[in-house]
Amino acid sequence: MDGREGPGRAIAAPGRARVPAAFRGAAWMVGAAFCYASVSTSVRVLAELKFHPLQIIFFRAAFGLLVALPFILREIGPALATERRAMHLANGVVNLGGTFFAFFAFAALPLATSVSLTFTKPLFITLLAVPIFGEAVGWRRWLAMAAGFAGVMAMLRPGLGGAVDLASLSALTAALFFALQVTVAKKLAPTEGAATIILSATLVPALIGLPLALAVWRPLGDWGLMLALGLGLAGCGAQYFTVRAIRVAQASVVAPFDYFRLLFAMSYGFALFGEVPDGFTLVGAGIIVASTLYITHRERAPAWPAGPDSSQAPAARLSPCRAAGRSRRGPGRASRRAG
């Protein structure tokens, strides 16, 4: 004993040593992946019950605001003290846009297909980082991005009997919007507090979504209420588990376990809708997953789970961004790794 360890520390330390941080982080991220897949499934079932996408989006936005509210209220003064209102408005609008396109895709496509296509978000993040942040992207990452988009083509197979339909384009557009939100958050992080960014990411979609939802509102009924509550709880659980995962282990370590979401989505699709992915979907999804995993490995940067609720995990998203902002300002860390 070195004098710093009290009886409580001596008892607690062996228990923690039995489960390495990486394993605990992986377990939390698998739980988050299950919740994210449950969000996609809840959207699909609500759509099957003929609820309008705008009403479903409002359910998610309202619950996201509700979960973030305690944290925002603790820092309400600094959260409202900002001079970058236009950027915060953009933060909320791109979040709403990404959620709209993602939910449309979840409602119209097989679950495995829609989830796989939204995994292209890291590809778009890397593309946006070049003109916006001036990041150097080496040939390995360019090759990985090309492979990832080749995987998209394998899934959509245009010209080979497949039609690039509106729902598939919607899933890719959702990935682009969520990549834009990550980019906006990174631009805000050096000067804005976490509560301010969380507030704009949740309040703007709720305020814009409310009148749109009221215009198409229909009574929930018992099943609708249960599914809406399930959608909210799954989204809240996803962001909570993601925060826990990134707190106990490095984001680059736990991020690959988010791809369990695809397995859960396939299971939901088969059990509830009788969906069996074809060979093109499986091959394309595998290529997309492999390419995004490689990009994450090369960047060694914090990664956010793909899909509509990645933008709803503020603590998981903002802390890495703020750390990145500090590393950019620190001596000898002005350039990121290229490759």
Question: Are there runs of 5+ residues with pLDDT below 50, and where?
Answer: 1-13, 301-338
Shape: globular
Helix percent band: over 70%
Task: Please state the average pLDDT score.
Answer: 78
Tally of separate domains:
1
The rounded Rg comes to: 20 Å
Order of helices and strands: HHHHHHHHHHHHHHH
Instruction: Summarize the biggest pleated sheet.
Output: none
- Helix tally equals 15
Distance between the termini: 45 Å
- By DSSP, the count of extended strands is 0
Structural class: mainly alpha
Strand content: under 5%
Provide a descriptive summary of the structure in words.
With 339 residues, this protein is mainly alpha-helical. The protein has one domain. Helices cover 76% and strands 0% of the residues. The protein contains 15 helices and no strands. The N and C termini lie far apart (45 Å). Mean pLDDT is 78; it is low at 1-13 and 301-338.
Write the layout of secondary structure elements.
Elements: H1 7-17, H2 21-48, H3 53-74, H4 76-80, H5 85-108, H6 111-118, H7 121-133, H8 139-156, H9 166-188, H10 194-215, H11 221-248, H12 251-254, H13 260-273, H14 279-299, H15 314-329
Keywords:
single chain, 339 residues, mainly alpha, 15 helices, disordered C terminus
What does this entry show, briefly?
It is built from 15 helices and no strands. It has 339 residues and is an all-alpha fold.
